[in-house]
Amino acid sequence: MQAAAAIANPLLANHHPFYAVLLTWHAAFDVSALIGWCFQQAGHSVQFRTQLMFVALNATTVAALWDAVRGRFRATWQKN
After folding, report:
1. In a domain, 74, yes or no
2. Is 13 left (phi over 0), alpha (psi -120 to 50) or beta?
3. Which residues span the domain enclosing 60?
4. Residue 32 within any structural domain of the chain
5. Residue 76 domain-assigned?
6. What is the domain count for the chain?
7. Which of helix, strand or coil describes residue 36?
8. How confident is the model over 4-57, as pLDDT tens digits?
9. Model pTM score
10. In angstroms, rounded to a whole number, what is the distance separating the alpha carbons of residues 69 and 44?
11. Residue 57: Cβ within 10 Å count
């Protein structure tokens, strides 16, 4: 969903002010996730962790779907 919004928002922003506001919010959310990643790399993972988690989970889902489409996805469960 986030990738679709990242593509659609800039295309729609010129057609209606509502989409321009959504583009601004989406950009601010992504920047806050990037700042959260920078804080995490510095060892301070408290700031913006929700945004970072949301973006990371979306990226992981897209990567897993891409692997599944290419036939490279093999999930196995092992009892520990």
Report:
1. no
2. alpha
3. 2-69
4. yes
5. no
6. 1
7. helix
8. 777 777 888 888 888 888 889 989 999 999 999 998 898 887 788 889 999 999
9. 0.69
10. 36
11. 11
